[in-house]
Write a structure and sequence with these properties.
single chain; 248 residues; alpha/beta; 5 strands; binds thymidine-5'-phosphate; Thymidylate kinase; transferase; kinase
């Protein structure tokens, strides 16, 4: 990663400033990414503000293979919520280009802003469950920076790096699913290692610990940890305990 690209973006403008740089603005993948944002934005503005009712917006986070996909699907089914994910489906086809590339962080960060538009659209109709959001982008890159030595250690909890971007829709609740490493490995054994980060997750205890610590350092919204070692039914019950106040 070049030093001119910030590790964590706190605004949409900061991301588009990178894409507008001479060396990136002509890349096909960058053009496609910007076009998807514009299309999504147009679609959202056409239907915005038709329903003022506020529905709950819940995010699931965690290391890979902690049950996010299964649990978020179950919770969405139970609460009749729209299930979305980041990177959003509209740009996930570009992931192969950006993964392991210097534009990886801008790509994931930008994906959060496309997801935000999809969330706003869906919140007009009912609750929304989102599988990963800004916290993933932030914690994976903070931890990666410690791992590759570009920063010495995670910044202290008080650091403004942990604050939510002021121009990005905040979730009502962020749940981080946690499992023992043994259970996580059993689940991940069935997957192919594709990215550097997935390989690091497999190999480095410190990388995993830093991700969990970075999640814990997040403020406004803070994250809530839920143990996902138990059966799916039990984890769904534990999650429902946490989120039920949002549906009162
Ligand atoms: C959504 C997102 C994923 N990732 C990485 C973390 C994991 O290695 C991997 C997980 O992707 P997945 O949830 O589609 O399996 O992608 C980021 O680094 N930043 C992000 O914003």
């Amino acid at each position: 990663m070049t030093s001119s690209i910030p590790i964590i973006f706190h605004s949409l403008e900061a991301i588009t400033d990178v894409f507008k740089k001479e060396e990136f603005s002509n890349l096909d993948a960058v053009k496609k990414l910007l076009a998807v944002y514009d299309e999504t934005f147009l679609r959202y503005t056409k239907i915005s503000n038709t329903n003022p009712k506020k529905h709950p917006f819940i995010v699931f986070e965690g290391l890979d293979a902690t049950g996010k996909t299964t649990i978020s699907r179950k919770i969405a089914e139970k609460h009749n919520a729209k299930l979305l994910r980041t990177p959003p489906a509209s740009i996930s086809g570009l992931r192969g280009f950006f993964d392991n590339d210097q534009l990886r962080v801008p790509y994931y960060s930008f994906g959060n802003y496309i997801a935000e538009l999809e969330v706003l659209e869906a919140l007009q109709q009912g609750p929304v469950v989102l599988d990963r959001y800004w916290h993933s982008t932030a914690v994976f890159w903070l931890s990666q920076s410690v791992e590759d030595g570009s920063v010495d250690s995670l910044p202290p909890k008080s650091d403004k790096i942990y604050t939510w971007p002021s121009d990005l829709l905040k979730p009502d609740m962020v749940i981080v699913l946690t499992t023992t490493e043994e259970n996580r490995r059993k689940r991940i054994a069935r997957r192919k290692v594709i990215t550097n980060q997935e390989a690091l997750l497999k190999s480095s205890v410190d990388f995993r610990k830093n991700i969990i610590k970075a999640y814990d350092n997040m403020s406004d919204p803070k994250v809530e940890f839920v143990d996902s070692n138990d059966s799916i039914e039990e984890v769904v019950r534990l999650v429902n305990e946490r989120i039920k106040r949002l549906f009162d």
